[in-house]
């Protein structure tokens, strides 16, 4: 059976609406035209699990205390501002991770809590120059013992533990550093020191080329481990569902996430993302070559599944770089509307948003 037909039974509640296609013009926008509707969804989980460790000494989460007891809110004082999603600036700003407050006694007003690796892995990157990033001092660990090989990011550190260097192996529960309030461009006050924790995937190996095209006016100090090149998922939801036994692995968790949109991309390029995370590939790359892709995105723009389409597939629009929006879940998109992945007008027409455009540029190298 054609895999694109068999996936219909996995669908979230999609809303029937006109499909939209867009070709990158190279002159500042997308040219949109109406098409038809196609639906797609995520697949069932694969096996493979690893012990999961809470990243700080605080035992509030493990004891079932509500998050209000152990997260660190922003200056607003709203505990929700420490969570993942469109939780800041009245829902207009996205927060990619989870902010965990210190639990141990402070020393001269500074946090003293250790920060631990959540799973076994390899230290992929360390930023020791706090002023070079809004993350301050941060560490990225790639967990290559799970599939997909996600990474975790530990930010705003006061210091890095001895022996923690790029390339070294670490065990789950091993100390990476000390919680702090380091950041670039702004000052986190002592009373709001915290760990910013992210789980995620890296969009492209060719990040520098994309960065140079943006003309940001500042250097990229972090190579492929810039925040622009990482897209994550909700750490608290992941920990909660793992603890409850609802999922048993990263694979299972990602497979369970609801889709926000499906886009069809006409291109012969094979994204390095697919080579890096082959578990997210729905079916094998056609022997006759790739003519395009169907990409399932979460409501906040994380790629969940890739379906390769062969050259000459009649469902592919002609022309390199054509983007078709083939299905959406308006509820998911609305939950994460600050990300601007897909925009929907009052009549139900869908167009690619600024956030969606950025994700696809990074994935496929579109200019």
The H/E string reads HEEEEEEEEEEEEHEHHEHEEEHEEH
Distance between the termini: 36 Å
Computed CA radius of gyration, to the nearest angstrom: 21 Å
Structural class, from helix and strand content?
A: alpha+beta
Helix content: 10-25%
Low-confidence stretches: 1-48
Q: So, CATH architecture of the largest domain?
A: Distorted Sandwich
**Number of DSSP-assigned strands:** 19
| The CATH top-level class label of the largest domain | Mainly Beta
Count of helical segments?
Answer: 7
Instruction: Please indicate the count of domains.
Output: 2
Shape annotation: globular
Largest sheet: 9 strands, antiparallel
Q: Which fold does the CATH topology of the largest domain refer to? A: Glucose Permease (Domain IIA)
- CATH homologous superfamily classification of the largest domain: Glucose Permease (Domain IIA)
Q: Per DSSP, what share of the residues sits in E-state strands of 2 or more residues?
A: 25-35%
Mean pLDDT: 88
Describe the structure concisely.
With 367 residues, this protein is α+β, with helices and mostly antiparallel strands. The protein contains 7 helices and 19 strands. It is globular and about 65 Å long.
Explain the overall architecture.
The structure is a single chain. The protein folds into 2 domains: 3-42 and 258-364, no CATH class; 67-243, Glucose Permease (Domain IIA) (Distorted Sandwich). It is built from 7 helices and 19 strands. It has helices at 3-6, 207-214, 235-243, 250-256, 272-276, 330-335, 354-364; strands at residues 19-24, 30-35, 85-88, 93-95, 98-100, 114-116, 121-127, 137-142, 151-160, 169-170, 175-179, 195-202, 230-233, 261-266, 290-297, 303-310, 322-328, 342-344, 350-352. The strands form 4 sheets. Strands 5, 6, 7, 8, 9, 10, 11, 12 and 13 form a 9-stranded antiparallel beta sheet that branches. A 6-stranded antiparallel beta sheet has the order 2-1-17-14-15-16. Strands 3-4 form a two-stranded antiparallel ribbon. A hairpin with a 5-residue loop joins strand 18 (342-344) and strand 19 (350-352). The chain is globular, with a radius of gyration of 21 Å.
